[in-house]
Model the fold of this input.
Amino acid sequence: MLSYRHGFHAGNHADVLKHWLCVLTAQYMGQKDKPFLYVDTHAGAGVFSLKSSIANKTAEFEGGIKAIWDKKIPSAMMPYTDLIKQLNGSSNLKLYPGSPWFVNECLRSQDKARLFELHPQDYVLLKKNFDDKRNVKVEKQDGFAGLKALLPPTSKRAMVVIDPPYEQAHEYKLVVASLKDSIKRFANGVYIVWYPLINRTDSLTDNKKDMAQTMVRQLSLAGGKSFLDVRLWVRGENEAPGMYGSGMAVINPPWNLAKQLEEGLPFLVKSLGTTAEAGYSVNYQEG
Ligand SMILES: C[S@@+](CC[C@H](N)C(=O)[O-])C[C@H]1O[C@@H](n2cnc3c(N)ncnc32)[C@H](O)[C@@H]1O
Done:
């Protein structure tokens, strides 16, 4: 069952954290001449219109990218906001990129991207958005299976983004299984996983909250050489039901990623927080 459309959520606070982190990581990967492979297991449509009826149904972008757009951006965040300006051709915010677009803009001619998307409509949009890119291959295939077939990469360097909708509870377990298998196949990969921070008071999502926490714990023990867990919450956990923030779990993060994120996170809390209980955390651990 594929009911999730990222267009409803494009540019929200979770996207800001996720895409900023992806851009910093892709730029780091590009610092060495050796090529790398980018894999996006759940790629979405690639580009979203913030003027569309879908985006404006809940207008989540207003509590995300729109809320920082006219502010003085910390320098650590500029590579991310500059790419959005580049897509829009100006400071007029009409379009918002998805993870494959952000990372693709950071790739060099020697790098390659493999994008997986199962939703029939978003797959068509994704394909269209990358039609003219020779080093990008778009596939309508399960992203977990696609990833398995690509590891280890011939380039011996890879950045992998895993961003499932988590509409089905078993997706948390699939992520852990996929990462354990991926690390066995290719221990040196940089693996990035998005996850929601879900409120306890919403009885329907209680189980998912526990599953997300368990997933992150298991990812931290999955065999990476180092592990980074970054969280941004825009209100207190128990102030309202639903998703109050998000986190990014990174296996084998770039050495300077935590520091770069800490330079921008206080700004995001101030700009995106809706109550005094908004906050962030950055936890880094070796091996
Ligand atoms: C959260 S969205 C991705 C957003 C995108 N990564 C971004 O940041 O712009 C999740 C996407 O995964 C797709 N999807 C769900 N299950 C999938 C699977 N097993 N393999 C590939 N894509 C899947 C959904 O159709 C949806 O477009």
